[in-house]
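Give me the fold.
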Amino acid sequence: MSEPEKKLTPEEEEQQWLETVYQGDKPQLTLRAIVTGSLLGGFMSLTNIYIGLKTGWGFGVAITAVILSFAIWNVLSKVFHTPNMTLLENNIMQSLASASGYTTGGTLVSAIAAYILVTGQHLNIWVLGFWILLIALLGTFMAIPLKRQMINVEKLPFPSGTASAETLKSLYSSGVESARNAKLLFATAGIGIANKLIGEDLLGLVRYEYFVFGQWAQKFTMSIESSLLLVGGGALMGWRTAWSILFGAILNYAVVAPWLAGQGIIAPGEDGMFTYRTIVGWSLWFGASVMVMAGLTAFAFQWRVIARTFVGMADIFRKQKRTLTAYEEIEVPGSWFAAGMALTSAGIVIIMYFVFEVGILMSLVAIALSFVLAMVACRATGETDTTPVGAMGKLTQLVYGILVPKRMIPNLMAASITADAAGASADLLTGLKCGYLLGANPRKQFLAQFIGVFAGTLVVVPVFYIIVPGPEVLGTQMFPAPAAQIWASVAKLLSEGLDALSISIRWSILAGAIVGVVIPLIDRFLPKLSRFTPSAMGIGLAFTVPFAMCLSMFFGALIVLIISWKKKDWEERIVPAASGLIAGESLAGVFLLIWSTLTNG
C-alpha cells in the first residue's frame, strides 16, 4: 500500500508554486496593458451601470475584456506590424479592466441610487467621486490578506477566474493538446453566444424561461432558464457545492415559500402568483445569516494562516526588517494593506462625518465589519462564482438599524461601506485567481487593480449623472433599479425601528446563524460525515437567488460528475468547455446590452 501523500504547509505550497508555475519577472504591467485595460474597463463599466439599473445584476468583466483585447491587438499587430500583447500582459489588462468595469459601478446602482430615491436628490459630484473611489480602494486593500488564504492555501475554484485563465491559455496556445482545448473552448463559446441570442428573444424564436414543473411550481417561481453561463459555472464549482445549492433551492421555493404563503407571511399578486422578490424578501435573511456565520466560523479555524499575511505590517514600526522569503518578494506586502486601509478609512470617516452626519466610531465599526463580510463574500464567490452583495447589504442594514436606529441615510451609507467593499474584494480575487493559475506576478497584478479603480471612477461618476439626472427616472420601465428599490425599502422599514421586523424574520436570522455554525463544525471535526452534509455557502446562496439559477448550476456539476464516471479521459476537457460557455454568454450579454441601447434608446 502506498503511503498517503504528504500535505504541504502553506509556505511549501507557495514555494512549489514559485518553482513550478511562476513565470518570472517578465514584462506584464506595461503601458499598453494599462491603456487597453482602462479603455475596455471604462466601456464595460457603462454597460454594467446600465444593466444594473435595469436588472440589479452586473456582468463579470474579465473574460469579455480578455477576448476583446486579444482580438484588438491581433488586428493592430497585423495592420501596424507591432508585437502582439503577451499572455501575461493580457492578464494584467483583465485585472485592470475588471477593477475599472465592475468594482466601481456596484455602489452606484444599489446604495447611491437608493440614496437618490430616499432623498430625492443627487450627492455632490465631488463627494460621490471620492466615495466611489474610497469604497473600491477599501475593497482592493482588504483583498490582500484574503488572497493568500483563499487562493494560495485553500485553492478555492473561483470559476470565472479559472475560466479567464483557461481562455487566455487557449488564445495563446500551441501544440496538439493546447490546440484541441482551444478549439473546444471556442466551440462551446459559440454555443453560449447562440444560446444567449436566442434565449433573450433577439431572434424571436424561444422564451428565456420555461415553466415545466407544473402550475403549482410556476406559482412559486420554479422554472428552467436557457442560460448556459451558470451551467459552465456549475461545472467548475464542484459537486458538493452544486447539489447543496439545488437542495437549498428546493427547500426554499418548494417547502418554505408555500409554508410562508399558507401562514399568510408572504402574499401573492392579484394573479395569484408569487414573484422572486416577494419570496426572497423573506428568505434572504436566512441565507445571508448562513453565509455570514459559515464564513466567520471558517475564519476562526484558519486565523493562524491568515495572520501570516499581517506580519509585514509590523515592519512599518521596525528599523530592521526581517528577511523575506522568495515568494514574499513578489507578493503584496502586509505594509501595503496597513497603509492602504489607514488612508482609505480616514477618507471614508471624513465623508461619513461631514456629509452623512455619522459619528467616527460608527464609521470605524462599518469599516471593521466590511472586512468581516469581505471574508464571507470572497468565500461565496470562490466556491459558487456568485457574490451575494444584495444579501450582505440587507444584513448589514439590519446591524446598523440596531446600532443607529431610525436613521435612513446613515443606515444606507454605512451598509454601502460593508456590502460594496466586500463585493469589490470578491471580484478582485477572481482576477487574482486567474493570475495565480498563469504564474503572474501578484504584486504587479495588484497594482493594475489599484490603477483600474481610478480609471473606472473617472468614467462612471460623470456618466451616472447623465444616465440618472434625477429620481424621476428610477423605478420606471426604463430603469426599474430593483437593487436600489430593495435597499431603499429596507432603510425605510428600519427607520420605523427594529419592531418593524416580523417575528418570522427574526427567527429566520437565528436559524440561519445556527446552520452557518453547525455545518463548518461538522466539516472540521467529523470529516467523514461531511461528505453527506451540504455546503453552508451553497445552502445560503440558494436562499438569495432565483430557483432557475440554482438548477442551472446543478446541471453543470451533474454533467461533470457523469463524465468523471464514464469518460475519465475527458476530465481535462471540462475546464475549457465550461470556460467557453461562460465566455460566450458573457460576450453575447454585452452585445445584447448595446443592441438594446441602440434600438430602444
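Residues 11-316+333-600 form one domain.
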